[in-house]
Amino acid sequence: MSDESRPSPADARPADRPADRPATRVAAVIPAAGRGVRLGPGAPKALRTLGGTPMLVHAVRALAASRAVSLVVVVAPPDGAAEVKSLLDAHALPGGTPSGTWGGTDFMVVPGGDSRQESVRLGLEALPPGHDIVLVHDAARPLVPVDTVDAVIEAVRDGAVAVVPALPLADTVKQVEPAAEPGAPEPVVATPDRARLRAVQTPQGFDRATLVRAHETVTDGVTDDASMVEQLGEPVVAVPGHEEAFKVTRPLDLVLAEAVLARRRLNDGF
Ligand SMILES: Nc1ccn([C@@H]2O[C@H](COP(=O)(O)OP(=O)(O)OP(=O)(O)O)[C@@H](O)[C@H]2O)c(=O)n1
Ligand SMILES: C[C@](O)(CO)[C@H](O)COP(=O)(O)O
Q1: What is the pLDDT of residues 44-60, one digit of tens each?
Q2: 8 Å CB contact between 245 and 144
Q3: Of the bound ligands, which one is closest to the alpha carbon of residue 32?
Q4: How far apart (Å, rounded) are the C-alpha atoms in residues 56 and 115?
């Protein structure tokens, strides 16, 4: 896809940005080193296919679809970086681009670690200078729409140091005392006000220096990057997420992802 043909609300509003001030360059880190234990036995989750194409390829395409994203760093399973690089080259080349680029977006592959947090840190360490906004996006969210990516970028460009796409919850949520045995009854201790809760997705967008400081400072195990920035005492804001940015975690999510992809292909006529 050529740079010009990629839609991007973030770049399509020159009035927001004086002509003499270039847009801050955006890089994306895609942690893809997980095993996918909750999905069940098989290849590492990011390499499992959706509509015949590896989930990771969908995720890279989704980020590269934003005109604002100029570099994607893919964090591969620790012993799988060469395989992942070949896979991405194979899917990028039919588009007529040289190895190492995807349309107008460069990509690189680095080995990951034992946890998502470590994998993101390794991706950040590999980022060359010159990109002052960083997105972190799960390979396991292969169908995120480009408008969601651009909305996150736009919020960071507008001055937020950390941005999460988020959706209201459909279910009532209970806080419980977790049972020692799986399946045993768990005492309910509270029912948080659902109106104040959000389910958080990716890509999460950051001022690069703040995200790097968070990864250097926070040592607790966390499940997302924004919570590390919260621990620094820095503000995090939520923008509207998208239902199709759901995470492929359990087998039923794969069924849903296949259905969403099939509907898109039907609508796009291919
Ligand atoms: N050591 C790890 C663990 C996770 N991830 C990535 O973090 C994202 C979100 O993690 P999750 O959906 O939990 O993936 P897995 O860890 O693979 O899933 P599971 O917990 O079921 O094994 C995924 O894109 C996954 O590849 C990673 O890069 N490195
Ligand atoms: C980052 C994340 O996708 C936001 O919802 C989520 O926290 C990842 O959690 P996981 O346990 O690694 O799936």
Answers
A1: 999 999 999 999 999 99
A2: yes
A3: 1
A4: 18
pLDDT at 100 over 80: no
User: How far is the C-alpha of 111 from the C-alpha of 77, rounded, in Å?
Assistant: 6
Q: Which ligand 2 atom minimizes the distance to the CA of 200?
A: 5
Query: Does ligand 1 have an atom closer than 6 angstroms to the CB of 193?
Result: no
- How far apart are the CA of 209 and the centre of ligand 1, in A? 24
How far is it, in rounded angstroms, from Cα 99 to Cα 255? 32
107 touches 88 (CB < 8 A): yes
* CATH architecture, domain 23-165+199-268: Alpha-Beta Complex (3.90)
Instruction: State the Cα angle at 223 between 230 and 25, rounded to 5°.
Output: 65
CB 24 within 8 A of CB 158: no
Dihedral, CA of residue 213, residue 219, residue 221 and residue 226, to nearest 10 = -20
Q: How confident is the model at residue 104 (pLDDT cuts 50, 70, 90)?
A: confident
- For residue 34, the ligand closest to its alpha carbon is 1
Q: Which of 114, 119, 167, 202 to mutate to test the pocket of ligand 2 (most atoms within 8 A of CB)?
A: 202
Helix axes 146-157, 55-64, angle to 10 degrees: 50
If you take atom 1 of ligand 2, which residue's CA is the nearest one? Answer: 224
Report in angstroms the alpha-carbon separations of 47 from 56, 83, 90, 255. Answer: 6, 10, 13, 16
Residues 102 and 244: their CA atoms lie apart, in Å, by: 23
What's the confidence (pLDDT) of residue 134? 98
CA-wise closest residue to 153 among 31, 68, 244: 68
